[in-house]
What does this fold into?
Amino acid sequence: MQKTEPYKVIRLSPLRKIIASRMTEAKQTIPHYRISVDIEMDALFALRKKHNTQNPDHKLSVNDFIIKAVAMALMECPQINSQFVDGEIHQYPQADISVVIAVEGGLSTPVVRNANNKSLSEIASEVKSLAERAQKGSLKMDEILGGSFSISNLGMYEVDQFDAIINPPQCAILAVGSAKSKPVVKDNNIVPAMVMRANLSLDHRVIDGALGAEFLLVLKTMLENKNI
It folds into this structure.
């Protein structure tokens, strides 16, 4: 009788080795803490639907709106837009947003540079191009390195919420879940609303809780009031 092996050995790919090394470094060296906020998305969904109906060849995703809103919020809360390098805080004047993308065998983090000065359509086009080339493994190093803030969105997988690990030397990452219909109180009445949970992971060496909370409040206000 042939003996059955108790498990299957899978060798780490070069990409998986890099991910394992960087995430271990992040968890061991960065004092993570997390804060979260619920964001009502009905008005933004309506705006997106109107735009996509009027511009079927240049459609926008929810993530495009989130990237733009995050970039603008970083301009109002510049302390969040930082890296921690060799015991120094490097604060950046523009929002270079690393977008976490699932690829075969791991993750890629292409950067939308200067996102605060780009239109939603420009961001959408760039993210699409970066994502396509990430899947093919054809991104250049300067398209992956140097981001000042990261966004990880698992909303398309119906995930309610999750915690993301900071991508060093960055100091923050936003984890975005799925928007779902939930009861909310408005004018003393319970009404349905599409609510998205956003979890912000922060490096406590650089960013204190009040600053993180201020950033989330600015982001929530922008998305709920379509100030994008």
